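Preliminary data (for renewal application), NDP complex.
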Amino acid sequence: MTDKYAVLGNPISHSKSPLIHRMFAEQTGQDISYEAIEAPLDGFAAKIEELRAKGYKGCNVTVPFKVEAFNLANQLSQKSLEAEAVNTLKFEGDAIIGDNTDGAGLVRDIEQNLGIPLKGKRILLIGAGGAAQGVLHPILATEPKQLVISNRTPDKALALKKSVKNDVVSVEAVGFGELDNAQFDVIINATSAGLTDSEIPIPSTIFAPGALAYDMMYGRETPFMAFARQHGARVADGLGMLVEQAAEAFCLWRRVRPETKPVRDRLRLS
Ligand code: NDP
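Predicted structure:
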C-alpha cells in the first residue's frame, strides 16, 4: 500500500518539496505519495490529527508552523531540542516524533556538495531568526575555529549565543557595525533580507581570500550574493540545503538515503 506524506505550511503553493520527494521515491523505488497542504493559521494541530487519522506516516513542516510542530511532538530528537523547532514529523502509533533536519542539510551541502570542511574555519552567521537557530548547533558540531553571530537586532544574536552550551568553539554575538576588522572563511546569510531585495550593511572586508558566501535563500540572486561575488567570494544559494534537509527527512521515514545530485541538477533546470 502507498504510504502517504505531505508538507504543511501557509502559504505552501510555492513549495518544491513534493517534486523533491517524488524524485527521491522514484529513484529509490519507494511506494509513497507526497503532497503540499496549506494548513489554516489557527488549525495546524487539527490538520495533523486529520492526517494521522487518515493513516499518513509523516510530514514536513515549514513556515509558520515549526515551533507549533515542536510543541505538538511527543518525542523529540536532540537536533529539534537544540533548534526548539521541528521541520519533520514521523507518525508511529501514538508517537509523534519530531526532528529538525535543516542544520544537517546545510552542513551536508557545504561540506559534501561544495567540498568545504567547516572544522577549523572562521564562520560568520548572519541572522538570529528561526533559520539561524536551526543551523547553529549543527554548525558548532563541525568544530569551527570561531563562530560569530551577527544580526540587525543585536539582542537576538546575544540570546542565540547564550543558548550555546558548547565551550570548545569561541562564539561571539555582534551587531553589523562591529564587523569592521573581522575576516571570515564562511559567511552564511540566514536572514530573510533577500525576500525584499534588501542589502545587509556588512563591510566588504569580511571576505577572507577564497571565502564562501552562502545564502540560505534560493530561487534568485540576492543583494548579499551579488555583494559577496563583487568582493571575490565564492557564492552558493540555499537550494542544496533544501534538497539535503529533504533527504534527511526521507531517510528518517524510509531508512534509505537518496542521491541528491540528480535532484539538485533537475531543480536548477526548472
Ligand atoms: P525569521 O523571520 O525567523 O528571521 C528573519 C531574520 O532575518 C532575522 O534575523 C531578521 O533580523 C533578519 N532580517 C530580516 N530582514 C532583514 C533586513 N532587511 N536586513 C537585515 N536582516 C534582516 O525567518 P527565518 O529565520 O525562518 O528564515 C530566514 C531565511 O532562511 C528565509 O529567507 C528562508 O527562506 C531561509 N530558509 C532556507 C531554508 C533552506 O532549506 N534553504 C530552510 C529554512 C529557512 P531581526 O531580528 O533584526 O528582525
